[in-house]
Structure formats: C-alpha cells, structure tokens
Automatic annotation (TrEMBL):
It comes from Chlamydomonas reinhardtii. Keywords: Purine biosynthesis, Transferase. Signal peptide: none annotated. One of its GO terms (biological process) is 'de novo' IMP biosynthetic process. The chain holds residues 88 to 299 of 299 of the full protein. This is phosphoribosylglycinamide formyltransferase 1.
Length: 212
C-alpha cells in the first residue's frame, strides 16, 4: 500500500514506521511526506531517503507567504500524483482540511500521546497532554491510534498501549515513556492497515485482526 505521512517535528513516529517498512514488518511504501514545517526533522529524514516532500498548508510568516499547497492541491496530489491509499499523521500539528478527510474515509490514522477520549481535543498536544495527565493524578497513560474525522482527536479508536504514571514524573519523563510505546503501536497499526486486517463493528468501532 502507498502511504502519505504527515509530520511537523522530529518525525520519530515516521522513522519508526519507515524502519518497519525496511525490515518487512509493514507491506507498504512511503510515497510522500507532507509537513507544515519545511525544515523539520521528519522532512530532512525523508529527503535523505529519497522520499518526495510537500508543504501544507501555505506557510505564512507576517507578510511572507512561503511555498505550500492549497487544500485542493494537496488532495489532488495525494490522490492522483502520488496515488496514496492511506494517510498517516505522525506528529502533525495542524488541522487536517475537511476535503482531505472526505478523500480518505476510514483511511487516515493519527497518534495521540494520551488515552483518548481523556486528555484530547484542541489544545491538548505534546507536553500539554503529559502535564494534564500528571496534574490529574492518573496512574496510567499511553498512546492512542485512531482514525481521523473532522475534529481534533475525536475519530474512532483503533489501538492503545498503557504505561504507568508515577506521581513524581516530570512531563519529559512521561513523554519519553509514552513515545517508546508509540513507536511500537503505530507500526503495528500501519501494518494491519496495509494488510487489510482492519474490520468495522456495525456501530463504527474498528477491529484490528492480528496477523497469524
Ligand atoms: C508525539 O508525542 C506524538 O504522539 C505526537 O507528536 C509527538 C511528536 O511525534 N503526535 P514525532 O516524534 O514527531 O513522531
């Protein structure tokens, strides 16, 4: 299967997925990497591995309007130029345009560093999630992989992993514990997506069928 991967930062989830493709755990290929931050780690890694990259959305800084695609150009590019089957959001922090959600129904995944539906939604990203988890006194956290709908972090949940939260944790310590699990669960989900091992309950909840 052909994947579009969206990144905004270091791209550690993208790198974990790419490594899983290279060692045969994922039957897919990264056709294109999309980012709102042209110079970020994920884009640099893609360029070092000969993977095409696109900028979305149009980068505006003050009156500087940089390169970047419109939503319509993005959808057209992913569908027709790069012939993507799935879209994988991996540390991408901008809202996905509705036209992209509609172009990839039940074919777009995101990973959130908290146990949705708790600690999710607009404003809950990166360290803010871990700060809120520690402040709440919760004793477990972990990554959630979910299908993307038109809001932030509200699509149907596909998989979660659990890590302990210690009351003495700093946000950085918890973030590192969660990130380690992200790098395990996300490639596992992308592999199932590429193998067609995801079914749907009639009430819209996804089912991940494990490989034999
Ligand atoms: C991770 O916490 C991920 O859960 C969130 O973005 C953060 C950075 O991800 N979506 P990455 O290292 O850029 O993949």
């Amino acid at each position: 299967a052909r994947l579009a991967v969206f990144v905004s930062g270091g791209g550690s989830n993208f790198k974990a997925i790419h490594a899983a493709i290279q060692d045969g755990r994922i039957n897919g290929t990264v056709a294109v990497v999309v980012s709102d931050v042209p110079g970020c780690g994920g884009v640099t890694y893609a360029q070092q591995h000969g993977i095409p990259t696109l900028t979305y959305p149009v980068v505006k800084k003050g009156d500087f309007v940089g390169q970047g695609l419109t939503a319509a150009q993005l959808v057209d590019g992913l569908k027709n130029a790069y012939k993507c089957d799935y879209v994988i959001l991996a540390g991408y922090l901008k809202l996905i345009p509705q036209e992209l959600c509609r172009a990839f129904p039940r074919a777009m995944l995101n990973i959130h560093p908290g146990l949705l539906p708790s600690f999710g939604g607009k404003g809950y990203y990166g360290e803010r999630v871990h700060k809120a988890v520690i402040a709440s006194g919760a004793r477990f956290s972990g990554p959630t992989v979910h299908f993307v709908d038109e809001e932030f972090d509200t699509g149907p949940i596909l998989a979660q992993r659990v890590v302990p939260v210690f009351p003495t944790d700093t946000p950085k310590q918890l973030a590192a514990r969660v990130l380690k699990e992200e790098h395990a669960v996300y490639p596992h989900c992308v592999a199932a997506l590429c193998d067609g091992r995801i079914g749907w309950r009639e009430d819209g909840i996804p089912i991940l069928w494990e490989a034999k």
